[in-house]
Design a protein that fits this description.
Blueprint: E1 7-13, H1 27-37, E2 41-46, H2 47-51, H3 54-65, E3 71-77, H4 88-98, E4 102-105, H5 107-110, H6 116-129, E5 133-136, H7 148-157, E6 163-166, H8 173-182, E7 186-189, H9 198-206, E8 211-212, H10 222-230, H11 236-251, H12 267-273, E9 284-288, E10 297-298, E11 301-302, H13 308-318, E12 322-325, H14 328-332, H15 335-348, E13 353-357, H16 367-377, E14 382-383, H17 387-390, H18 400-409, E15 412-415, H19 422-434, E16 439-442, H20 449-459, E17 465-468, H21 478-484, E18 491-492, H22 502-510, H23 516-533, H24 539-545
Parallel strand pairs: 1-2, 2-3, 3-4, 4-5, 5-6, 6-7, 7-8, 9-12, 12-13, 13-14, 14-15, 15-16, 16-17, 17-18
Antiparallel strand pairs: 10-11
């Protein structure tokens, strides 16, 4: 089957306020990134329309995309009451005249109620014209411009209005499912909605016709979004719908943006664009969790197919050789039950799963016995203290017996940040000084640009500190940043599955614009060194790929 049309439903251009200096904003940068990712076009709105004046920003948008047939304009609308914009029917008529095929609203940012009393004329005009309305329903800060309850009321009053949910997150899975179940005119894009087996689960639930590719450019990696489609288990026809067919239909797009010329982008990216496993290099994921067999959620979030069987299947689809796993029940509520589960999985899937021990020293009535069981009997070489649930500083004396064992076996310690800044990193600095034979894997080091810069500076002079990339933000350009900082040998591909699907995290690395050798190091070479230091018997894996040293 020929490559499908890829269209991005969630992108923006223009100077984007108080963001990091590395955050891109020019149309030319977007076009270059689209070409690199093989995404043929993008629906875009302008930051001037959000941060200054919608009408002014919409006019600038049309000027800036006029010469680019890959950039499809989306206008930002506000209610007409204060004369900032014409009433809904007049605005929609102008949109149609100017070839604008979608609208976006920012009720929280622009300070108005998202209901019929305030926005009814706009809603009705868009509904009559069948112009899709884009609305951010994210969980945090400005990413939430409307609640799910507000969107539900909108859909009840305007059942034929196409509404595209943007920036919803994997934590919102239950709300998104209920909304899509009830309202047939709702759609969702997956830039932050990185639900484990999410495309498959929602295609089965409501059909692939209502699922869309979205990147959140310039903040997120476009390759992360494309990979989610290319590696999922949908059939080719459904993949083509999600990739771009659904957005083209919603926009009434009669002429698709042109294809790109074929070019060699390196063995890793070439394989990723075909949705093929990376079977020529070691790929190791040092940050995963797991549920008991058959469970579909844990704690506060749904995690479809979060058991070991489905995680192994997903990882094999990507070409992942091993994934290092701590159980969700172990870190969240019952560490002993979690350790038993992980031991069972290492026996059932010895060629896939490596175990982390989880221990809460405050709850343990025999810490030495817990440590011996995990590391001597079960053979775990990973340690997973977890401050968010245990509540102890990482350098608490209560952890010392555990770290002494980890230091003796050359273990690796996965550390989830709680307080970004001096407190967290000073705790880790203390540990690296006192237990230098352990490797320290700092989780979520690419969460934000501030965190990335802080972690890079911290790791630079500490050779046993490694930077775990994983986060929903799939921060665009951060892998390149770490490599530029001389840390290519300390960055780790990680996923946090099944909280998130591993595929977007995989695409984040595969599409990064770094050398093939550096990609190989990030995907598995660096973690292979960590595992070798811990004395794990991975000789067969090393021989398979010709890894030495």
């Amino acid at each position: 089957m020929p490559s499908p049309l890829y269209l991005d439903s969630c992108a923006s251009i223009g100077m984007n306020g108080p963001t990091d200096a590395r955050v891109l904003w020019k149309p030319s940068s977007l076009l270059a990134d689209l070409e690199h990712a093989g995404i043929h076009g993008a629906l875009v709105w302008h930051w001037l329309a959000r941060e200054y004046d919608p009408g002014y920003g919409n006019r600038v948008l049309l000027e800036e995309v006029a010469d680019h047939d890959r950039l499809l304009p989306c206008w930002v609308l506000v209610p007409h009451h204060m004369g900032e914009m014409a009433p809904g029917p007049e605005v929609v008529a102008e949109m149609r005249e100017r070839g604008v095929r979608a609208a976006k609203m920012f009720p929280r940012r622009h300070g108005y109620r998202f209901d019929d009393d305030v926005c009814g004329l706009v809603f009705s005009a868009l509904e009559d014209a069948q112009i899709p309305l884009l609305i951010d329903v994210g969980r945090y800060g400005d990413d939430q411009q409307a609640t799910f309850a507000e969107v539900a009321r909108l859909c009840e009053r305007h059942p034929d209005l196409p509404v595209l949910l943007q920036k919803s997150r994997w934590e919102d899975t239950r709300d998104v499912a209920a909304l899509l179940d009830r309202h047939a005119s709702t759609y969702v894009e997956f830039s932050s909605f990185q639900v484990h087996y999410g495309l498959e689960a929602f295609a089965e639930r409501v059909g692939a016709d209502r699922l869309l590719l979205g990147t959140e450019w310039p903040f997120k990696s476009p390759g992360a979004a494309r990979s989610f489609i290319d590696y999922c288990e949908l059939g080719d026809d459904d993949k083509a719908k999600v990739a771009g067919g659904n957005l083209a239909r919603l926009l009434g797009l009669e002429v698709a943006p042109p294809a790109y010329p074929e070019r060699d982008q390196g063995r890793i990216l070439n394989a990723a664009k075909r949705g093929e496993p990376l079977d020529h290099i070691p790929v190791i994921d040092p940050h995963t969790h797991v549920l008991h067999d058959g469970l579909m959620g844990g704690g506060y979030v749904a995690m479809p197919h979060g058991d070991a069987e489905h995680m192994v299947r997903r990882n094999r689809r990507l070409g992942v050789d091993r994934f290092c796993c701590s159980s969700w029940v172990g870190i969240w509520i019952d560490y002993r039950r979690g350790n038993r589960l992980i031991h069972d999985l290492t026996q059932r899937y010895p060629d896939d799963v490596l175990g982390y021990a989880t221990i809460d020293p405050k709850k343990s009535d025999d810490l030495e016995a817990d440590i011996a069981l995990c590391h001597d009997t079960y053979g775990f070489r990973g340690l997973k203290p977890y401050n968010p649930r245990v509540g102890l500083p990482y350098n608490s004396p209560l952890y010392d017996p555990w770290y002494e064992k980890g230091n003796a076996i050359g273990g690796y310690v996965k550390l989830h940040q709680t307080i970004i800044g001096d407190t967290f990193l000073s705790e880790i600095a203390d540990l690296t000084d006192r237990y230098p034979n352990q490797s320290y894997l700092l989780a979520h080091s690419a969460w934000t640009w501030d965190v990335a810069r802080e972690r890079a500076a911290f790791a630079r002079d500490r050779p046993n500190v490694f930077l775990d990339l994983t986060f929903t933000s799939v921060l665009h350009g951060v892998v390149e940043f770490f490599v530029e900082q001389g840390l290519a040998d300390r960055v780790l591909y990680c996923t946090d599955a099944p909280m998130r699907d591993p595929i977007p995290q995989f695409g984040w690395v595969a599409y990064s614009q770094i050398s093939e050798a550096d990609k190989e190091a990030v995907f598995g070479g660096n973690m292979l060194r960590v595992l070798a230091h811990a004395g794990l018997p991975l000789d067969a894996l090393r021989r398979r790929y010709g890894v030495t040293g």
